[in-house]
């Protein structure tokens, strides 16, 4: 896959169209077997300056590079936050509804910080508006395929959320050793799957996602 450098072109067009700010949104941990699902948000407004050099979709960055860029991205955005939904909530609600719940929690943090949510345009990676389905009052959501690659606000949200969730899984690995979460971050690596077979599921596992045979 060719490396794509994000820009602020989409965000500036939305701001020129009357948005008070643009909230870039991306999810992390959607396909993991263990740990929370997270939604990162990063706010840019008309005063946004050049974003940190090297900022890209988190999947295109090495782990050390993501850790370096995450605080820079958070400082660049006027506000940022990460909302989470627990493995139990994923099991009870399903992954799409859990994503919406995590996004709602991230937006609540922005609202508490004074961000004008109702006047914003939410720039959501992908082609499915799973966010509005979780909200009692719909927001102005624009979906865009590969927004995490070509929109700086969404790339920032991606990196911030990924580093935040990775840190949680590294902490969880120390508290519940044996599943190698520090390395696989809860995804289904061969070592992780072998550990589940040997040790059984842990509290952080999404039980409805596990298909283990004897």
TrEMBL record:
Molecular function via GO: RNA-DNA hybrid ribonuclease activity
InterPro entries according to UniProt: RNase_HII/HIII, RNase_HII/HIII_dom, RNaseH-like_sf, RNaseH_sf
Cofactor note text: Manganese or magnesium. Binds 1 divalent metal ion per monomer in the absence of substrate. May bind a second metal ion after substrate binding.
PROSITE patterns the record matches: RNASE_H_2
Chemical reaction(s) catalysed: Endonucleolytic cleavage to 5'-phosphomonoester
SUPFAM superfamilies listed in its UniProt record: Ribonuclease H-like
Residue ranges annotated for the RNase H type-2 domain, each copy included: 20-214
Broad class of the protein's primary localization: cytoplasm
Domain of life the protein comes from: Bacteria
Pfam families xref list: RNase_HII
Keywords from the named record: Cytoplasm, Endonuclease, Hydrolase, Metal-binding, Nuclease
Enzyme class: hydrolase
Cofactor(s) required for function per UniProt: Mn(2+); Mg(2+)
List of residues binding a divalent metal cation: 26-27, 125
Subcellular location: Cytoplasm
EC nos: 3.1.26.4
Family matches, as NCBIfam families: PRK00015.1-3 (NF000595)
Function: Endonuclease that specifically degrades the RNA of RNA-DNA hybrids.
Family note: Belongs to the RNase HII family.
The name this protein goes by in its record: Ribonuclease
Species, as recorded: Cryobacterium sinapicolor
Organism lineage: Bacteria, Bacillati, Actinomycetota, Actinomycetes, Micrococcales
